[in-house]
Amino acid sequence: MNRLVSAGRALRSAAPHQLPDALSQVLRTQYAAEAVELRLADYGLTVLLPVPPAPSGTKSAPVQGSAPGRAFGSQQPCVEEPADGRVRAHLPVTVRGDRLGVLSLTLPARTRESLAELTELAELLGHELVVAERDTDLYARARRRERLTLAAEIQWQLLPARSCAREEYALGAQLEPAYAIFGDNFDWEASADHLLVYVTNGMGEGIEASLLTSLGINALRNARRAGIPIEDQAALADQALYAHYRGEAHLSVLLVDIELSTGRMRVVDAGSPQLLLLRDRVLSLVDLDAQLPLGMFEETDYVAQELTLLPGDRLLFVSDGVHGVAAPGGESYGEHALARAVGNASLLPAADVPAAVLRGLTGHRGRPEPDDDALVVCLDWFGKRPAS
Predict the structure, then answer these.
(1) Residue ranges of region Disordered (predicted)?
(2) Per-residue confidence at 6, pLDDT binned at 50, 70, 90?
(3) Is the pLDDT of residue 133 over 70?
């Protein structure tokens, strides 16, 4: 039997919490692996943490400045060849562009020719991890450097993947403070013809902000799954929020619907998140008609604006906890420092841009702890390739 087929069968038949053990058994018997270590990226995307948490002999690895971190960042195998004649291979564990972690193996040198097959096995593992997380908390616990606040727990459960990619686009997003967020959120959905992206910011703090955002996100999803346009999605979610809060709380939201075949984009701007466009190395704020946040008044009507993306465009969605943050001298991040951070990240893939912009924000703020949630979403638009 083909080794890859055998490995896939072993993973699918394993109990959800036993994937690491099943994988280790396959790699030791089929590929002569001498050591097998699985690490998952933490919520802050700063460190790769071992699974199961802190097993004997396996240490965490920083995303910046380690061999596993290089594999995670580049999304390519990273191979070390120590003097003992063995090969140390670090393989990205990724599902449809969503970077989960890294599989590290110690192998006899003769098995180096199996690297492509092992890389495919690491991707297969990623798919099984996504399925297994429905039935076990093992992998959610393993990704935590510290305990999440209850508000953050609610928000992370609402989120889709933090990155995804298709022929037409690549997406990446990050929230800070990762372990104590409360109001900011993002969502996206792709079909054969359209990509929809949502960036939201619920007013208030703590658990109240997270509950408001939870109601708003689910109201938008409910409307979206009815197959209606984004302006009607906004109107229905607005009604749901007003019915519950009677105007005492509101949700700022930016809704974007992109037609994949043409790059035509329809946008509803209902609040504080900003949309920036990087085109031909020039960053500009997209001029949108500001409309009322969701839930302020009963039966508000919303209107979508139309724009067109060009291949090579990069869109940045930033919350007010990014563009409005002031430096000690008073200058807001959105005035000049944000443009510098985006320019410095121009060669990075979309999945890495949000973290780079947020690192720049920390330096601008002059202190590590933020006063508000900070959210960055990056969308790289490649466009539809002509049929060959």
Answers:
(1) 55-77
(2) confident
(3) yes
Residue type, 173: A
Check pLDDT > 70 for residue 61.
yes
For residues 72 and 63, is the Cβ–Cβ distance under 8 A? yes
> Where exactly are the structural domains of the chain?
3-143, 150-381
The tokens describing 172, both together, are 């990446």
* Region of 246 on the Ramachandran plot (φ > 0 left; ψ -120 to 50 alpha; else beta): left
> Looking up tokens 């039935």, which residue turns up?
135
Give the model's pLDDT for residue 56: 57
Beta-carbon contacts of 367 under 8 Å, excluding residues fewer than 6 positions away, are none
* Residues 200-216: tens digit of each pLDDT: 999 988 999 999 999 99
Per CATH, domain 150-381 is 3.60.40.10:
yes
pTM: 0.93
- Fold (CATH) for 3-143: Beta-Lactamase (3.30.450)
Order of all β-strands in the sheet with 61-62? 61-62, 47-51, 35-41, 98-108, 86-95, 78-80
Which single residue is written with the structure tokens 């429905």?
134
Q: What is the mean pLDDT of residues 236-264?
A: 97
Terminus-to-terminus CA distance in the chain, angstroms?
36
CB-based contact 228:249 (threshold 8 Å): no
Token pair belonging to 6 = 């055998």
